[in-house]
Fold this sequence. Notes:
Oligomer: single chain
CATH architecture of the largest domain: Sandwich
CATH topology of the largest domain: Immunoglobulin-like
Structural class: alpha+beta
Amino acid sequence: MKIRGLLVALGLLLVLAGGIWYSNHKGKDSAEKASVTPNVLTLKEADIVRVEFVRPAGETTTVLEKDSSGTWKISAPAAYPVDRDAVTALLAALSSVASDKVVDEKASDLGQYGLAPPALAVTVRLKDGKSKKVLLGEVTAIGSGFYAAVEGDAHVYTVASYTKDALDKSSADLRDRRLLTFNSDKLARVVFNSHKTETEFGKNASGEWQIVKPKPYRADAFAVEDLIRRLKDVKLDPALSADGQKKAASAFSAAAPVATVTVTDAAGSQTLEIRKTKGKAEGDDKYYAHSSVVEGVYSVETATAKAFDRTIDDFRNKKIFDFGFNDPSRVDYHSAKVQTTVSKAGEKWFCAGKALDSNSIQTLLDKLRDLAATKFAESGSSASEIEITVVSGDAKKTEKVSLAKSGPDWLARRDGDASLYVIPAATVDEIERAAADLKEDQSKPPAKK
């Protein structure tokens, strides 16, 4: 009897435990389902072919369309090219419009939510010819969200302010604002006219920028790339009124030229001209730009415009050696006071078969790496007094430099380069000392066990 009663009690306990588990599990599933709010709209980005923004308050309608070639363009209020990043972000936002919650499952009066008429209606046309219209209304009573609905659906949702901002776009938000639209990756030629000098940049066989005209010079790659970046930073003001356009065009016609830049990529050439009007006081100067690919004249920020007020010397490479941060494998240094040849084997440097102190050789390498001209000379033919040869790039690159005294400074000439680099005497003295101060490695090898 006792055993039977015990078994019955155990069975009841198992049933009760199972009921509790099922109740908890079901409750958890219900809570998880309740926490997932439905999307206001779900689409495939690839299916979207047209987006129309209508603001019943009287603002201009904006229409964004994909043409037969698959290129997005603004067709209203006027025809404009688009900012591809802005359009990509918009399509991503339209493909999944998330809601915070459903506030009305069967709304009979959309007007109470500011949805009839809406503050903004975004109509999305799909490639199958069907359309979806998202309505955005007033700010919610509590919080900073907005009411939203889809035409033909009785549900009213709330969406976060950032969701509303992602959909609320005008032509100014979607328009390509660049005055030059060249492809930086395909850029092959840049012609820079400034200070009555035409400087042409081209790429060598290694894809590095070089000065082609007025004479072949080594180019400062960072300076050329900065010029290209500045060109892409010159942008129009899409909100500029017709009256503002006329004033800018008038100021441009009377302004003094600063620079004209022509860039050529695989699609062709584009030109940007920058001019300056002189202000009454220092800092009051104003700059304007006109592009060959965008209609109109636009003002340019002073900091951006001043970057075009350069001479050819600003783009010439003033570094004497090109081995950069890759340590060379051999250095020959010959002057009246110092005659030395050092070479690298493994991680150590040697001179006449003897290992060198790492600090002393590193000092010499750093001095050679940092050696740079302060300016360029037009002439000078003094006899060479110092000869330096640096081998780098796995012995594939050899740079030979000769230095000669010229007044208070020195003139440096690279082998195969017609440029004359002006080097301060103090800099040359430091290199001479570093070459003379090379020391043998005094560290003792580890004791053998």
